[in-house]
Amino acid sequence: MALVAPTTHAKPLESPCGGCVRRSHCMLQALNHAAPDGRGAHSQPDLPVTSRLLHRGDFLYEQGERASNTYVVAAGALKVWTGDASGDQQVVGFLSQGDLAGAELTRDGRHGSTAQALDTTSVCVVSTHKLMSALAGSPAAARAVFDSMGARLDDMANLLLRVGQKNAEQRLASFLVGLLDKQRHLGLVTDRIELPMSRADMASYLSLAVETVSRLLTRLQGAGAVKVQRSHVDVVDLELLRSLAGQSAERHRLH
Amino acid sequence: MALVAPTTHAKPLESPCGGCVRRSHCMLQALNHAAPDGRGAHSQPDLPVTSRLLHRGDFLYEQGERASNTYVVAAGALKVWTGDASGDQQVVGFLSQGDLAGAELTRDGRHGSTAQALDTTSVCVVSTHKLMSALAGSPAAARAVFDSMGARLDDMANLLLRVGQKNAEQRLASFLVGLLDKQRHLGLVTDRIELPMSRADMASYLSLAVETVSRLLTRLQGAGAVKVQRSHVDVVDLELLRSLAGQSAERHRLH
DNA sequence: CGGTGAGTTGACTTGGATCAAATGAAGTGG
DNA sequence: CCACTTCATTTGATCCAAGTCAACTCACCG
């Protein structure tokens, strides 16, 4: 049976949308079916969507590049990272199935970060300009795009909360719990995690040192919460994992 | 003369939009003037915009609340923070003139964070539902909203970069530089900052302890970069401040 | 199998948190 | 106008969680 984790056996879409397994959940579909209650498609011509296949290490887009396309991840996984003038890099998110990509924009309309494939990955590509025109035909689609961006904002806020208020162990545990929640949301298995990213990526994302991530994975395993074998993590005790993720060591509050 | 900082002497708008000083820069205006090149307004009825006045401490919206409105800050300042089950709170952003608010959405359509006035603040309120319908009439407006959200995503990514990769001094310095950049972008003074938020808010935003923020402000002053008097900061040496904000690993820090 | 890079483990150091106490500013009401 | 409370901020002294440095193991690959 093997309900696989999102990054395993990723396949390119032969024909965009038409053969897409996620079609019914995709925000772009709202454009072609403006009235989900069955009142039928409107006259708006279909939005041209193309598919692009990436291999491990390939860039979907790079920071500073003129941002002309918007993307939806169909299969696989990407990391999104920002760099600055002094060479520091920071992973700010991991994207998987269904996530919107390419929307973080600098004031002058360039990509504010870089998206890089962690694995064989397939994305749906649409011209941002055409997407905006297409939204004109469909409040429901506008809403879907707005909501996707809103969800990413919420994700980042939660990441900031974790990095700012939780200790290293809590950060790592809640990272794992977050991955499980995401998998459940996508209808995948929730007792196992396949980590598509390196320890260094996890460390950057959680603002920790690689050594700390490694030590803590060992510790979580020792505590009986998970069983770790390289990039393969079995969830042994989800409740324990959640509790390790949760409580903070009574830090300062804002009134 | 006194070009004041954005939060001083904030006034409510007597009549939304019509009398708004920022009218020409407002993303909502794109809705009423879909063709900026002068081809004239289209038939789309005006989007109903109301104004709301907040006083220090008032909530614009609260985390968990059903998200039905979207906001644009007209004057004043707000802090945006997220909390979690264990009571931890984290300031994830400060909003001022022209910023979009209320767009961080949980999966079930609720506000993912709380927005609270730091000062007397005026915001423009529009129903998200009506906004989405209105965007149907104007790709340019859809683009403006998309870009605003994209800019907030970029802001958060940069905050993550700072918190993850910079030491305390660099974080504080780049926070100040960021405020100056924002002020310059709005056409305000760039040699002076009026901090509308408490030290605790700054500390949370930068993921530092209040004591550290206080100590570092003293240190930046000692280095001759700024002159601090409570919430009033004079920029003495912008280049120095920038250099203190910039480089990461290199130990050219103060004594 | 030797080489290479990722991951783990151990020993030691330190930046910034925490604890504690003083000082300052802004009321409040007598 | 001044005594008194309250809360924000600053300053000082100490400590520890996580970073850094270093050595080793493991998987994978030509």
List the helices and strands and how they pair.
The structure is a homodimer of 255-residue chains.
Chain A: H1 29-32, E1 50-54, E2 59-61, E3 69-75, E4 77-83, E5 89-96, E6 100-101, E7 114-117, E8 121-127, H2 128-135, H3 139-165, H4 168-185, E9 192-194, H5 199-206, H6 210-222, E10 226-229, E11 232-235, H7 238-246
Helix pairs in contact in A: 4-6, 4-7, 5-6
Chain A binds a DNA duplex (30 and 30 nucleotides) through helix 6.
Structural account:
The structure is a homodimer of 255-residue chains. Chain A has 7 helices and 11 strands. The first copy, chain A, has helices spanning 29-32, 128-135, 139-165, 168-185, 199-206, 210-222, 238-246; strands spanning 50-54, 59-61, 69-75, 77-83, 89-96, 100-101, 114-117, 121-127, 192-194, 226-229, 232-235. Chain A has a 4-stranded antiparallel beta sheet with strand order 1-8-3-6. The first copy, chain A, has a 4-stranded antiparallel beta sheet with strand order 2-7-4-5. The first copy, chain A, is globular and about 55 Å long. The termini of chain A are far apart. The interface between A and B is large, with 61 and 64 residues.
